[in-house]
Amino acid sequence: MDHFDYRDGELWCEGVALSAIAKAVGTPVYVYSSATLERHFNVFQDAFKGLGVGEPLVAYAVKANSNLSVLSTLAAQGAGADTVSEGEVRRALAAGIPPSRIVFSGVGKTAAELAFAVQTGVCEINVESEPELDLLAEVAARLGKRQAIAIRVNPDVSAGGHAKIATGKSENKFGVSFAEALRLYAKAESLPSIHAAGVACHIGSQITDLTPMREAFAKMRGLVENLRQHGHRVERLDLGGGLGVPYFNQPTPPAPDAFAAMVAEVTQGLDVQLAFEPGRMIAANAGVLISEVIHVHERPEGRRFLVLDAGMNDLIRPAMYDAYHAISPLKEPTGDASLVTYDVVGPVCETGDTFTRDRDLPPLGSGDLVAFLSAGAYGAAMSSEYNSRPLVPEVLVKGDDYAVIRPRPSYDEMLAREPMAPWLKA
Ligand code: LLP
Questions:
Q1: Does 399 have pLDDT greater than 80?
Q2: What fold, for 34-281?
Q3: Is the pLDDT of residue 328 over 90?
Q4: How close is the Cα of 378 to the center of ligand 1, in Å?
Q5: CB under 6 Å to ligand 1: residues?
């Protein structure tokens, strides 16, 4: 459930009409609902209550939507953070997430990033390879610290979904094999600057079927038992993120309750602290991208292009993953308007700047406003200034109130970021 709905003939976010935000801030603009972010986090966290698995660490995957106000909204609900760069660790800290709830993941952490994370005192660094373990041991020793780690395992499970966001097969770059994990865990335990705390996995994103997750988690359970048989202590099991969201027209993902029940069944009696790294399921349906129709271009030979002021630089998911985003006019369509078929495109000079082809929508014209739904995750976070289009702004709604939480840079600000090489100055 989210807090975007039609009222009095218009699309609202909580207590604010989206057209009012479009008017005040301009388009394109991302709008997020605080109540939806809070609800999704709590639904996920509460799903584990009463299942006998203890209180898991829910480390929100910052990459999905890393705006400081979004992070701070989630921090107030008790969220931890799953981070993949020093920048993300800094964002989590700036948003008030304590280091004791910050996990640092990623396949290629630099020595400087590792040092920053160790000094910060993050609760878990997910180590993805032997060279990384060696480097971290060295860095932590130099700093006189003992760092808790989890070994990230690649469970070699096919998660379904788009190949570009599958991470859990052995041909993907993430994590180590089970055999390697056993060896690396033993090595980690022998290193004085390392505390081998657990194991981690993450098999992919937008997963809509529990079967591959169950398979991966069962293998992880086997690994924990195997490690213990070898005399190792295993305190934490990090099962990653990946739970899908109901993008319109897509297979319906399992509800958090069903996910939690499956986890409880698979990990029953294991006596570990569970950790999760959900991103999309918390942020996706908490955000929309509002855009204005520039014009409709009808080709005599048949195609009808709805040209928007939002482009692939603002929302790259359709271009990159053939992702489907529902498009809703801000003005509620009247039941009797017959639908028109459009190719919905942006202004960027690439054929890939096509949000969708052959989409049936109510009749739209220049100046009309539309919202791309389910755009709160991997939307603004992946936006760019390609084609020198100023970075798309972000707005957060809370009840009847809203705030610009990332302003659109002016053209002067955009150009001022690039100092001219001294020899080119006039
Ligand atoms: N943990 C790790 C280690 C990850 O790599 C990811 C996502 C997550 C957690 C969060 O996964 P989620 O719960 O959001 O599915 N840009 C793509 C998605 C890339 C996901 C990358 N890793 C998209 O727009 O679909």
A1: yes
A2: TIM Barrel (3.20.20)
A3: yes
A4: 9
A5: 61, 64, 82, 105, 165, 167, 202, 205-206, 240-243, 277-281, 317, 321, 378
| Ligand 1 geometric centre to CA of 242 (Å) | 6
Question: From CA 216, how far away is CA 210, in angstroms rounded?
Answer: 10
Contact of 26 with 289, CB cutoff 8 Å: no
**C-alpha–C-alpha distance, residues 74 and 244, integer Å:** 19
Q: Is the pTM here over 0.70, yes or no?
A: yes
349 labelled catalytic: yes
pLDDT in tens, 143-184: 999 999 999 999 988 876 677 766 667 777 778 999 999 999
Q: Where in the chain is the domain with CATH 2.40.37.10?
A: 4-32+284-416
CA 229 to chain centre: 36
Tell me the CA–centroid distance for residue 241 and ligand 1, in Å: 7
Tell me which of 2.60.40.2550, 3.40.50.1000, 1.10.10.10, 2.40.37.10 is the CATH number of domain 4-32+284-416.
2.40.37.10
- Cβ distance 244 to 253 under 8 Å? yes
